[in-house]
Amino acid sequence: MQWVWHHPQVSVVLSGMSTLQQVLENIGYANRSGAARLSGDELKLVHKIRAEYQRLVPVPCTNCKYCLPCPNSVEIAAIFEHYNNANIYDNLRAPRFHYGNLSSDSRADNCVECFECEEKCPQGISIVESLKAAHALLALES
Which of 7, 80, 76 is nearest to 43 (CA)? Predict the structure, then answer.
């Protein structure tokens, strides 16, 4: 939250809270925050973490689901979550299991390359090509 508050163009930070303790913590963060309050070392650390995350994540999907619904029922956001997790954790077991549990008509190989999803994607992701890569990695027959 400190990083979000650091930006001068941000005037309000909304965070999900479900307990009074979380409300009090958020008030504390807000009281200690403000524009340009992070140190140079803190900003370097944020940049380093961001670069490492981007290196590990093949598809920069934010799970906004603007690409959905797919006219062919492909579960694009879920597939990208499984694909990214396989890469982040360098472990195929759970992502392949979850991908395999998707209904067969919602898996990546059901994409007919209509590109409707790419027109809607605010991240500019090459969804069709990324779905092919995800299926190649996650499908049990690969």
Answer: 7
Q: What is residue 33's predicted lDDT score, i.e. its pLDDT? A: 83
Is residue 84 within 8 Å of residue 94, measured between CB atoms?
no
For 55, the 3-state DSSP assignment is helix
Here the tokens at position 68 are 């959905």
Q: At residue 77, what are phi and psi to the nearest 5 degrees? A: -65, -40
In angstroms, the Cα distances linking 11 to 4, 6, 20, 47, 137 are 10, 10, 23, 22, 42
pTM above 0.70, yes or no: yes
> Is 75 exposed, middle or buried (CB count within 10 Å of its CB: 0-12, 13-18, 19+)?
buried
